[in-house]
Write a structure and sequence with these properties.
The chain is an alpha+beta fold and about 300 residues long. It contains 10 helices and 13 strands. The chain has helices spanning about 15-25, 45-50, 70-75, 85-95, 95-105, 155-165, 205-210, 225-240, 275-280, 285-304; strands at about 1-10, 35-40, 55-60, 110-115, 135, 145-150, 170-175, 180-185, 190, 195, 215-220, 245-255, 255-265. The strands form 3 sheets. Strands 8, 9, 10, 11, 12 and 13 form a 6-stranded antiparallel β-sheet that branches. The longest helix has 19 residues, at about 285-304.
């Protein structure tokens, strides 16, 4: 197949996207496929650079990549692509919308309020969430723009900073517990990974992408807790209409899994969590990429 690795993009996660793309390029089978790097620097690039591809292997993250816009463009061009479709991509990128759907499904997730400009901050009841709270861009990723706010006096500055990254900001209940991530491949849960940042108070950008930034290990949860985690992850995957693969981040508190967010194009760098989870299931990185491409083409065939 003629495969284009689509990387770069216009979001705050561009550098991570380039790392993901380079990792993919280094692990694709060049005997089986013609592989082309396609770096996106502007919105027309997708149209101008993808003609003739048999498959677009998406290494994009963030806005104009993970939010359904690229997926919709590729569909209009008739080019198959990897990962979830337009609807799931768009909904999962919007943290507020995805939380609403989770709650409708009876899934546990932290309470939150939303603001789109500073004037709204006085009108929302942040105190009911209790301090500390987590302030994050509503549509961001890679922990960019996220702050943990310990007291009301620091809230305004944190919201103002987050608004530099996005049009709206989520102020979310801080959940103290064990942070885990659940990678799903073709509707099956891969081994669960526990995450503990080695510096700072949470799994921030540095912890995610620098060598030794976090202690990430496959864990065996107690059977009852594992069953709850698996049920929550798969239910979330289905209700948000994800397909092919995704990564669902959670906090386990008092044996109950609380969903933080869903990543429809999780990072696939050397330090990324999904490849580590796949390796624990005896799936090598090259095999993982092949499976993602196969399942993506099968998903497209089912839709047609």
């Amino acid at each position: 197949m003629k495969i284009g690795v689509i990387m770069g993009g216009l979001s705050s996660e561009r550098e991570i996207s380039l790392l993901t793309g380079q990792e993919m390029m280094g692990n694709l089978d060049k005997v089986k496929h013609e592989v082309y790097p396609i770096e996106i620097n502007g919105k027309r690039d997708l149209i101008d650079k993808t003609a003739g591809l048999d498959l677009a292997l998406l290494a994009l993250h963030g806005k104009y990549g993970e939010d359904g816009t690229v997926q919709a463009t590729l569909e209009s061009l008739g080019i198959p692509y990897t990962g979830s479709g337009v609807l799931a991509s768009s909904v999962c990128m919007d943290k507020e919308m995805s939380k609403k759907l989770m709650r409708c499904e009876g899934l546990h997730t932290g309470e939150s309020v939303q603001v789109s400009h500073m004037d709204e901050l006085e009108a929302v009841d942040v105190d009911r969430l209790g301090y500390p709270v987590v302030v994050k861009p509503n549509s961001g990723g890679s922990s960019i723009g996220i702050q943990i706010v310990e007291h009301p006096g620091a809230l305004s500055a944190a919201v103002q900073a987050a608004l530099e990254w996005d049009d709206s900001v989520m102020i979310e209940q801080f959940l103290a517990g064990e942070e885990i991530t659940c990678s799903i491949l073709n509707g099956e849960l891969l081994p669960v990974i526990s995450i503990r940042a080695n510096a700072g108070t949470f799994f921030d950008y540095t912890s995610k992408y620098e060598d030794g930034g976090a202690d990430e290990r496959v864990i065996q949860l107690p059977q009852e807790v594992h069953e709850r985690v698996e049920a929550a992850a798969l239910s979330c995957y289905r209700v948000l209409r994800c397909s092919v693969y995704a990564r669902i981040d959670m906090i386990v508190k008092d044996g109950i899994p609380y969903i933080l967010e869903v990543n429809t194009l999780p990072g696939l760098t050397k330090n990324s969590l999904l490849p580590k989870s796949a390796a624990a299931a005896n799936i090598s990185f090259p095999e993982l990429l092949e499976l993602i491409m196969i399942y993506s083409l099968e998903q497209r065939d089912r839709k047609e």
